[in-house]
Amino acid sequence: MAESDITHRLKESIRRRVWNLMEAQAAARPPRPVHGRIPNFKGAERAAEHLQELEEFKTAKIVKVNPDSPQRPVREAVLNSGKTLLVPTPRLRGGFILIDPESMRESDYCFAATIRGMFEYGSRVDLTSLPRPDMLVMGSVAVSCDGSRLGKGGGYSELEYAILSELGLVSDKTPISTTVHEIQVVDYVPMESHDLRVDIIATPEGTLRTNIVRGQAGRLIWNLVTERMISEIPVLRQLR
Prior knowledge:
CATH topology: Rossmann fold
Number of helices: 9
Largest sheet: 8 strands, mixed
C-alpha cells in the first residue's frame, strides 16, 4: 500500500474515533450527525473566551475564522471586540466575506456570526481587495499537542491558507489557532507536506501553545488542484 494511502486511512480512523467518542461521552452538540463535520462541542463558548485572552487576539485588527458551528462563538467574539471578521464561504464557493462590526448594531453581532447572518451583514470581497488577517482560527476534527491538525477531509483550510499565502497576505509568522473539545486533542495526527499545523489550541479548559515549525505548507500545489475544483471555486480561476 502506498504511503499516501496508509496516511489517508489512518486519518479517517482518527476522525471516526473522535466523532464516536464525542457522541459516546455526550460532548457533541447540534448540528448532527456529528460524523462528517467539524464537530460542534459543549464548552465552545468557554474555548472562545480563552482565545480572547491571548495577546495575539487582543492585538489583532482583522481575524479570519472558519464558518463552522463550533467557531460561531469565536466569530461573535471578534465582532464584540470591535475587530473586522473575515470568513470564507462554505467550500469557498462564494469566496470570502468581510464583516465590519461598525456597520451594524451590537445586538446584531450574534446573528451576524452565523452562516445566514454573515451573508446578510457581510460583504463579499474580491481577491484584489482581501485584507491581511492578523490571526487565523481554524476548525478541527482532531489536533495533537505538537500542532498537527486534522480537518474533515476536504482540505479547505489548507486551500484558504494557500490562497492567502499566494497573495502575500499570510506567512509563517501569522498565528494559527483552533478551538476544540478536550476529546479532540489526540496523541498523534499524521501529516503530509501540504497540511497545516496550528500554533495555539484552545479548549474549554484552557490554551496550549504548540511551538511548531510550519515547514513547506502554505503555497498552492497546482497539481493537486483539479479542474472540478477550479470550476466550482471562482477564486481559484482568478488566481490561475
